[in-house]
Amino acid sequence: ALLCGLTLPTSEARKAMIWREARTTKREAPAIPLFVELMKRSKQAVVSIRVQSYRLPDAGKESPVLNMVKDFFQPTTPAPPIPHRQGNGSGFIINPAGTIVTNAHLVANAQRIHIEFDAQLQLPPCEAEVVGIDTTSDIALLRTRTVGPLPYLPLGTSGKLNVGQWVLAIGNPYGLSHTLSVGVISALERQHTTPSGQKTAA
Question: CA–CA separation, 102 vs 89, rounded Å?
Answer without folding.
Answer: 8
